[in-house]
Each structure stands twice: as C-alpha cells, then as structure tokens.
Amino acid sequence: MATHSGFRAIALALVFALTACSFGSEVQPPPRSSEPITVPEGQSTFAADIDVSLATLRRALEREVPRRLWSIDQSGVECIPPQRTEVIGIALKSPPIRCDLKGTVTRGNLALSGRGRDLFVTMPIRAEVTASDIGGIIERKTATANANVTAAVRLSVTRDWGVGGTVDIRYDWTSPPTVTLLGQKITFADKADERLKTVVARLERTLQAEIARLDLRSEIAPLWQRGFTVLSLNRENPPVWLRLTPEALGYDGYSASRNAVSVRVRLAAKTEIFVGDEPDAPDAAPLPRMARNLASSSGLALTMPVVAQYSELEKVVQKALTKRAKRPFPLPRLGERMVEFRSVTAYGTSDNRVALGVEFKAWKPGERDDPASGTVWLTARPSNAPDSRTVEFLDPEYQAETSRFTTNILLEIAKTQDFSDAIEEALTQNFEKDYSDLIKKVEAALAQKQLGDFAIATKLDTVSTGTLAAYGEGLFLPVSANGVARIRFAPR
Question: What is the pTM of this model?
C-alpha cells in the first residue's frame, strides 16, 4: 500500500534503523490495538406507497344504497294541463286530462374510478313510468328514462392518520322520462327530480361515513413497526449490517385508481452501519402523529465500511515474498543468499498505525543447515487522498529482532531492491477491488430487501470515499453513498 517513491524512503529508513540495532537484542512486538471500528450514522428518508383497498367502500355503498330507489303509484294525476284553443274566434279552454301513474326507479352497479386526487363514484339510474286510463281515451303509455349520478370525492388525512373527505355530487338525465299523449310531449322529470334529491343526499351521507371508516392507520402501522430492523449487507469478510431506526413519518399526498387509493408517505430513519457481529434490532415505538415539514424528496444516506482485515493482508504479503524467495537475493558484499519467509504478522497498533512483522531465514546456497534468522517489525501510518483507494504508509519506524549474530545479514537482505520491491508490491494495496465488491454487494442487498409484506428498493447514485484509519479489526476506509429509496407493499 505504498507508492514506489514512498516505499524507497521506507526501505532507506529500514537500513538506518537496522544499522543501529545491536545483535542478539530482544525486541517486544508493537502493542496491539483493540479499538473497534465505528461508522458514522446517517439519516435517510424512504418514500413509501401504501395502497388502501376500495373494496370495503364499494361493498358498503352497495349495501347502503338500495337497488330500488323508489316507486310511483298515483291515481288521477293531471297528465295534460288545460289547453286554450280558439274556435270561430271564440277562446275555449279544455279541461285537464288525468291519468294514473305507476312506475319504479332503480339503480345499476356502483362504479368507482380515480384520476389524480379525484375519486369518482358513479351510479346509473333507470326509471320506467306507465300512464294508464288517460282521460278515458288512451289505455296505456310507458316512458323510460336514464340518469347518471356522479360523486367527486377529495380525501384528506389528519395528523392522527384518520381519513376525511369532501363530496361534490351532480346528476343529469341522459334521457328524461317522456311520453307523447294526444300529440303532446309530456315529461315527468320534475316529479322524479324531487325524489332523486333524497337519493343523492343519502349517497352523500353514506360516502362521508364510509370514507371516515377507511382504516389508513392499520395499513401504515405495520410499515412503521417493521422499519425497526437490522439488514445484512455483507455476510462475511467482514460481516456488515445496516440498522434502521424510524424517527418520523410524513404524508405526501395520494392518487386514486379503480381499486385502491395509493397513499404516499415519507419515512425518516436513522441508518447505522456495523462491522462484525450482528447488532440488536432497535426497540419498536408506537406509530407517531404525522410529521410536518418532512423532506419531500426521498434520499438514502449511508456511510459504509471497506475493511481490509489484517489476516487477509498477511496472506497478500506472505504470497508476494514467497514468490520472490524462489530466486536467491544478491548481496553486494556477502554474495547470494537464499531466503525462506516463515511468517508475516499484521495488526493495528497505537496512534492509528499498522504493525507488520516479517520472520525469515537466510543462508548461503548449499548451506541451509546454518541459517541466519530473525524478525523485522515495521510500524507506519496508513494514508490516502479523499476519493482515492490507493494507500501509502507514512512515518515508518523499524525494529529488528535476531536469534544470533545475524544482524548484518538481515540488514543486507533488507537493503536489496528485490526485497523492498517485493514488500512494496504486497503493500501497494489498492482498495479498488474491495471497494467495488462492497458496492456491488450493498446494491444487491438493498435492491430488493423484504420486510415482512413490504419491500425496500434502493438505487445508489453517488459514492465517495474518505480517509483510512487503522483499528484493531482492520484498515477502515469510509465510503459515503447517497441514492433513492422506496418501500412498497409486496406480499410474499
């Protein structure tokens, strides 16, 4: 995890440090850090759509508004009013013509539809009226008529998640009840209108009562309760968890359709990331009153960890050094030496530094029975620029621990370019792969996450990286991610 120029400085410092070491000295390894990784919490707002079925409202209206609206049964009704005529210049007035009226007015199936914020209830009406014994001249005449009653409803939601609404009802005759008697067109619309007003008033009262019974609260409460949860973002290497703690719920309008009213809400939640063991889920709180002035835009804000575990770093360094050890190391004053790298130890130490210990043996070709052995310890501070995953180590410090008079041999091996290049290759860790892998895992984990009958769907838009920190659990690179998040009812 170093640049070429940076690591050459490290190698040079190593030479001077080891030159000052006395052979046979006992060196204590750097102290281990036990400080856990802590990730800053974020605040996120999830857009959620709660569909409230209109089936209950439709059934209630069908139940409360009878199919047969009213009946007509009247005798001796003035069907044709007196007529004025003039015969031979003399004005005459004919008597009214009376008849008997019978008929029924019925409704068809109630239809619900929606468009934007308007919910429409349409009730078709059919009337059939028969006029009989018309002035003792005409036996029977029948008239049919059709009308439409349309109620436009606007809903409102209270801070306690109750539902109210305003109702605007209009009706018109598409074909008025009309018959032709003795050459005159007679309509009975005025008589029907009087009774129709009563039906309209009943429909309005029924609508308002049933709208108030729409149980939005029971639809929203499960979403709120299930929001107190822990989600897995990465199962291993390392385990990463997202804990959601809802804090507020706001209302963002609704849209109506034929079968449901889709209520839009905004769920504001604290988002915390944990590395390692799964945290406890937060205690669920009761559904609060509607929050005012909640941000109308949904946004997911997370600080995610890219963690390079020291056990993985040890493997990378060990592999690189073992690969180089297949060839002898040329030492300018001592000749060639074969080297066996026995172990590599890496961990976090104090002051945000990393400790790296390399234990190895060295011998002349063909003289393996008399090796020089020892351990070189390096501590350094990891560093990177913001939005860069390339890491270098700054302020290196070295210690050498040997088992016999071999300090000069270890020093000469450490001075070689091959040795420094091998370590530099191992330590020039670019976090790009770990970073890309984590983003892919998080996107996959959050793309469609199920919470009971609700599904979280997210999309990350912008991602940026911070600066490295060394903890006891590994090297931590904070990654800030922002995107959009939605929750939908999605029963399994």
Answer: 0.64
Q: Tell me if 316 sits within 8 A of 324, measured CB to CB.
A: no
DSSP 40-98: --EEEEEEEEEEEESHHHHHHHHHHS-SEEEEEEEEEEEEE---EEEETTEEEEPPPEE
Distance from C-alpha of 276 to C-alpha of 178, rounded to nearest angstrom: 83
Write b or e for each residue in 67-87: b if 16 or more Cβ atoms lie within 10 A of its Cβ, otherwise e.
eebbebeeeeeebbeeeeeee
Q: In this structure, how many other beta carbons lie within 10 angstroms of the beta carbon of residue 370?
A: 8
Residue 110 contacts residue 62 (beta carbons within 8 Å): yes
Q: Is 282 helix (H, G, I), strand (E, B) or coil?
A: coil
pLDDT in tens, 36-86: 888 888 888 888 888 888 888 888 888 888 898 888 777 766 676 665 555
* Cα(482)–Cα(484) distance, integer angstroms: 7
DSSP state string for 395-453: EEEEEEEESSS-HHHHHHHHHSHHHHHHHHHHH--BTHHHHHHHHHHHHHHHHTEEETT
3-state SS record for 84-125:
EEEECCEEEECCCEEEEEEEEEEECCCEEEEECCEEEEEEEE
Q: Where are the domains of the chain?
A: 54-214
Decide: 475 and 356 in contact? Cβ < 8 Å.
Answer: no
CA–CA separation, 246 and 213 (whole Å): 27
Q: Residue 356 and residue 346: Cα distance in Å, rounded?
A: 4
The tokens describing 466, both together, are 């911070």
Class of domain 54-214: alpha beta
Q: What is the CA radius of gyration of the chain?
A: 43
CA–centroid distance for 268 within its chain: 11
Which stretch of 90-99, 127-136, 212-221, 466-475 has the lowest confidence by average pLDDT? Answer: 90-99
Alpha helices in 288-342 (DSSP H): 310-324
Q: How far is the CA of 279 from the CAs of 82, 443, 454, in angstroms?
A: 92, 21, 22
